[in-house]
Amino acid sequence: GYEKNTNPLLSKIDNVHSYKAESCATYTTAGVKCILEYKNTGKLFEILPNYLFRNEVEVFWRTTNWGEPTVKIENYQNKHDLKKGCKTENCDYDQVLLSGLREQILASNKNKILVVLHTSTSHGPTYYKKYPPQFKKYTPVCESVELAKCTQEELINAYDNTIVYTDYILAALIDELKQLDEYSSSMIYISDHGESLGENNLYMHGLPVSIAPKEQLDIPFIVWVSDGSRTLKDNEILSQHNIFHSILDFLTIESPIYDEGMSIFKN
Length: 267
Known about the structure:
alpha/beta; three-stranded parallel β-sheet; four-stranded mixed β-sheet
């Protein structure tokens, strides 16, 4: 329904589904925690990657961002680690998350694998620095960290360019997964929080949930499944907590905390 074509590649890929979703927080640390926990709880919990790793699933965590809970796995790589093995021209951008990924998956001797790619592409305030020059599709763009000094058009253009770049990264990731034809694969893309771009003179994110505008709470929830692997339920609205149960379901992990009703996949 958006007037700009910010998803030119994903919109042409089969088996891609988009859901409406809301975050349970407006800042990174709390949003990532919600994505990785099985329900909204203030108690101590074991996050998804640690839980799966302890249960013999191969877990790869690749990040160009921050604000993650303590990830206790063997294969954790930050941007510095990833850049060392990156040979392409865009290693300073989030494409570095895909560098050597297929080879890493193929080298695994496990039959169940979770890959987490924690991007930073649309995280402000320097939206204009988050994408390569060829993705500067919408102009003029805001090139200041003092967002209120830019026009709203410039700010939205810079942000939309990050979405066009994210579209490219996700399409490239799906292409990589398609080449792993011996695996049943699914890609789930979700955000930790939304973003204000000058609406009612609000910028970025971080307002308390009780007063936060919808721009800081509405998030994407995009799913791709490989041919013949699984079918998706017809949910209209999802939450970050659907992630934990959906991944347990897809990987057929038996667990006393698994909630079938929270999985996005049909049996």
